[in-house]
Specification:
It catalyses: O-phospho-L-homoserine + H2O = L-threonine + phosphate. This protein is of the alpha/beta class. The protein has helices at about 5-20, 25-30, 55-60, 80-90, 105-115, 130-140, 150-165, 175-180, 185-190, 205-220, 240-245, 265-275, 285-300, 310-320, 340-345, 360-365, and strands at about 50, 65-70, 95-100, 120-125, 145, 170, 200, 230-235, 280-285, 330-335. Helix 5 links the parallel strand 3 (about 95-100) and strand 4.
Length: about 375
């Protein structure tokens, strides 16, 4: 075999691999508001696993699929919207972007902005961000500003900054973010062949439930789907403004990604709930952490606490008899567990591995093998 043919074969293999990791804009461009000549800033987001959760299905009495959004490049669903936000920012001539964040948005914005060659300004609630998410923003070169306030204070400042200075706002109040995030609904239909009976997900700033509903309704209107699901959202009990019907001034929950007291997309989320015949409820921190542990221990899916809110809600409604058996259910888990390892390990006691001699019987003994 000649060196030339070897290089050609390697190039062909790389091309196949590249095609397998195209981002959501390349895959769904006809469904997205981009001009043909607009630049595309992508890290190969989307095409995340849709996993049949067998033990969860057995417990719920429903065919339950888990949409694992932690498999996106920066470990959360935010990447779907951020590819659109940064592509739009570059097309508009922006030289910097700004976001308020509970963590995942900042990680995603910083990564995509670094790819685009833009500066990122991140406004975070002081001392209330999981270390893993903060590390992502820092290593991608973001200018991180901690604000003595909560997420809602940060978002208000980000809005004002983008209004008064030449920076693009990339929070989900930017409508192109929702456009990118709706592609997850397209993927669900593409895999299952139609929309499920029920789609369940966590609700924080409420952009994701809005985006999924938009995706499902667009697929229904244009042919790939023959129906839409009921949309069920779950907030943390300490940060449940949509359940209470009013903003929460001091939201508090272990699920930092949904620790939001005044969701920017509240109106659209309520519309998604009502138009779909769905519901938005709350779950306790204890239920969230139990669901996080359940997913990791029984389904092999490690998620951050907020991601487990939907599973916690399903388990609670099954317990109360409000979840009808026999349905096809999709539950979105929004971020990877490595985002917040401190919370994952809290309450488990000191993490120690027993030290033994390099001896087969010693290892077997501590493992309980006989």
């Amino acid at each position: 075999m000649s060196p030339t043919s070897t290089v050609s074969e390697a190039a062909a293999q790389r091309t196949v691999m590249a095609r397998a990791t195209v981002g959501v804009i390349a895959r769904y461009r006809a469904w997205l508001p981009l001009a043909d000549d607009d630049p595309v800033i992508t890290l190969g987001e989307g095409s995340t696993p849709l996993v049949l959760a067998e033990r969860l299905s057995e417990e719920l009495g429903c065919e339950t699929w888990v949409k694992v959004e932690g498999a996106n490049p920066t470990g959360s669903f935010k990447d779907r919207g951020m590819t659109m936000a940064l592509s739009s920012a570059v097309a508009s001539g922006a030289r910097a972007v700004v976001c308020a964040s509970t963590g995942n948005t900042s990680a995603s914005a910083a990564a995509y902005a670094s790819k685009a060659g833009l500066q990122t300004i991140v406004l975070l609630p002081a001392g209330r961000i999981a270390t893993g998410k903060l590390a992502q923003a820092i290593v991608h070169g973001a200018k991180v500003v901690q604000v003595d306030g909560n997420f809602d204070d940060c978002l208000e400042l980000a809005r004002k900054l983008s209004h008064d200075y030449p920076v693009a706002l990339v929070n989900s109040v930017n409508p192109v973010r929702i456009e990118g995030q709706k592609t997850a609904a397209f993927e669900v239909v593409d895999v299952l062949g139609d929309a499920p009976d029920l789609h369940v997900l966590p609700v924080g700033n409420a952009g994701n439930i809005t985006a999924y509903w938009r995706g499902y309704t667009q697929y229904l209107a244009n042919g790939p789907a023959t129906r839409t699901p009921r949309m069920w959202g779950f907030q943390a009990a300490g940060a449940a403004p949509l359940v209470l019907g009013h903003p929460v001034l001091d939201p508090e929950t272990v699920a930092t990604a949904i620790r939001i007291g005044n969701p920017a997309s509240a109106e659209q989320a309520i519309a998604a709930r009502d138009e779909s015949g769905g519901r938005i409820d709350s779950v306790t921190d204890e239920q969230i952490l139990a669901a996080q542990s359940f997913l990791a221990a029984t389904e092999g899916i490690f998620v951050e606490p907020a991601s487990a809110a939907g599973v916690a809600g399903l388990k609670e409604l099954r317990r109360t008899g409000e979840l009808e058996a026999g349905q096809q259910v999709v539950v979105t888990v929004t971020g990877h567990g490595l985002k917040d390892i401190d919370t994952a390990l809290a309450g488990r006691g000191p993490v120690r591995a027993e030290v033994v001699a390099p001896d087969l019987h010693a290892v077997a003994g501590v493992c309980g093998l006989r």
